[in-house]
Automatic annotation (TrEMBL):
Transmembrane segments: none annotated. Its cofactor is Mg(2+). Signal peptide: none annotated. It comes from Streptacidiphilus fuscans. The keyword Lipid biosynthesis applies. This is Holo-[acyl-carrier-protein] synthase. The keyword GTP-binding does not apply. It is found in: Cytoplasm.
Amino acid sequence: MSQPRIGVDLVPLARVGELLGELLGSGSRPLLGRMLSEHELRISVTPDGAPDPAGLAGRLAAKEAVFKLFGATGQPVPWQGIEILRGPGGRPEVRLAGPAADLAARAGLGPIDISISHDGGFAIAVAAAVAVPVVPAVP
């Protein structure tokens, strides 16, 4: 029997502003650079090319919301394996790879839908998918 799964996360834009300061002021790979792929960083910009705190916060919230769908309590978030990209018409789209794809498969998740919104200094994301119980192979 299939089971709906929902994940939600909220990220303060002020925290992303702090992380942006680390990213822009450091030659190392600070936290934000470990959480978002190079592609995600490139597409999270304002029309004038500056980093977009709302877009970055939305992607971080979306990654956390997707991770909550996996039901992988106690495991680290596979940040680089969950990408939040622009799909057709600009809608956010989820791409999974590596450990994130493995966790999704173990959870029996089908396609993941994501919604992101920004207001009042926060970004919120909701991820939804349907999980179908995984039946282990019989040897």
